[in-house]
Design a protein that fits this description.
With 147 residues, the chain is of the alpha+beta class. 33% of the residues lie in helices and 29% in strands. It has a single domain, classed as Nuclear Transport Factor 2, Chain: A (Roll).
């Protein structure tokens, strides 16, 4: 399993980190590409919701994808679209993501601040996104764990 974040006991110098990051090791290269792909996917989640691109947001999930928010669960394309269309408009501001990759699966933890465009009220939250065998046409998508 490869993690994006180092634990406090992992004390690498900036030079050592740069050497590892820029290594020619193919495994690290694959991981860097996966990290970049997941970071772009995360940006698309909030961006598409904030721009009311509901069908584009739904396309970021596998057909069996599930989205859980504030104690409610929305499943499959129809449920996801219903959630996106009923969500209040606003702006999602996100923290840096903690990404762990294990083969074709990944887990992401990310904090966010949502600001409602009408009331200007804000909500702070933390989300955990799990991708289980999530690649579709070679790309990560949100999916659900196998039974």
């Amino acid at each position: 399993m490869t993690a994006l974040i180092a634990e406090p006991q992992d004390r690498h110098s900036v030079e050592e980190f740069a050497r590892i990051w820029h290594s020619e090791d193919e495994t690290l290269g694959d991981t860097r590409g996966d990290l970049e792909e997941i970071e772009v996917l995360l940006a698309r989640y909030g961006n598409r919701l904030d721009r009311s691109d509901h069908s584009g947001w739904v396309d970021l999930f596998t057909t069996d994808g599930r989205f859980e928010v504030y104690g409610r669960s929305f499943e499959g394309p129809e449920g996801l679209l219903r959630m996106a269309e009923s969500a209040p408009g606003g702006l999602h501001l996100t923290s840096a993501a903690l990404i762990e990759i294990d083969g074709d699966s990944a887990t992401v933890e990310q904090s966010f601040l949502f600001v409602d465009q009408v009331s200007h009220e804000s909500r702070i939250g933390c989300t955990t996104i799990n991708w289980y065998a999530p690649r579709r046409d070679g790309d990560f998508r949100s999916g659900v764990p196998p039974s």
